[in-house]
């Protein structure tokens, strides 16, 4: 029998499904692995019986952990180019493939802690407070990682465009 908390997590999962796929895609490098990680996270959500204080943060942390587990268990080297546009709704404002690839490549050059904050802020649409809670970091640390990461991205992309 599902608890009220599990029902709320499943509803949140449904509402966040596309954002979770995009986030997982950036974490894993491809759509298939992202799908597997999101499905694994859903399974963990359905079988977890503990108390959850911040459901959205818990949901994204579960997906992040599933991505990490998936990548850790893979033995072959990864090509981190991803088919991001396949995960997006077709919108007139969708980035051009070469722009996306440049941003994805620039993100891969950042330290992991900066890239993670940028992904959570812009791809998962999380607030600074949610990111701080999720990563268990002080709020000023989250803001500085975003600031330094964005500055590095700006410099890297300015050289290319």
Automatic annotation (TrEMBL):
Record key words, sorted: DNA-binding, Sigma factor, Transcription, Transcription regulation
Keyword set includes Transferase: no
CDD domains, per the entry: Sigma70_r4
Biological-process GO terms, alphabetical: DNA-templated transcription initiation
A GO MF term: sigma factor activity
InterPro entries: RNA_pol_sigma-70-like, RNA_pol_sigma-70_dom, RNA_pol_sigma70_r2, RNA_pol_sigma70_r4, RNA_pol_sigma_r2, RNA_pol_sigma_r3/r4-like, WH-like_DNA-bd_sf
UniProt KW DNA-binding keyword: yes
Ranges of residues in domain RNA polymerase sigma-70 region: 12-75, 106-155
Family affiliation: Belongs to the sigma-70 factor family. ECF subfamily.
Name this polypeptide is given: ECF subfamily RNA polymerase sigma-24 factor
């Amino acid at each position: 029998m599902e608890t009220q908390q599990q029902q709320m997590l499943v509803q949140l999962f449904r509402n966040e499904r596309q954002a979770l796929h995009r986030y997982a895609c950036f974490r894993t490098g491809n759509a298939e692995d992202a799908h597997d990680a999101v499905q694994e996270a859903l399974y963990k959500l359905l079988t977890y019986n503990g108390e959850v204080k911040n459901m959205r943060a818990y949901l994204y942390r579960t997906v992040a952990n599933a991505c990490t587990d998936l990548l850790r268990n893979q033995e072959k080297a990864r090509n981190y180019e991803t088919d991001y546009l396949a995960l997006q709704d077709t919108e007139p404002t969708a980035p051009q493939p070469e722009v996306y690839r440049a941003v994805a490549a620039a993100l891969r050059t950042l330290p992991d802690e900066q890239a993670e904050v940028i992904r959570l802020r812009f791809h998962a649409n999380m607030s600074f407070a949610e990111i701080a809670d999720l990563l268990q970091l002080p709020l000023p640390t989250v803001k500085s990682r975003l600031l330094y990461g964005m500055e590095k991205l700006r410099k890297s992309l300015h050289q290319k465009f």
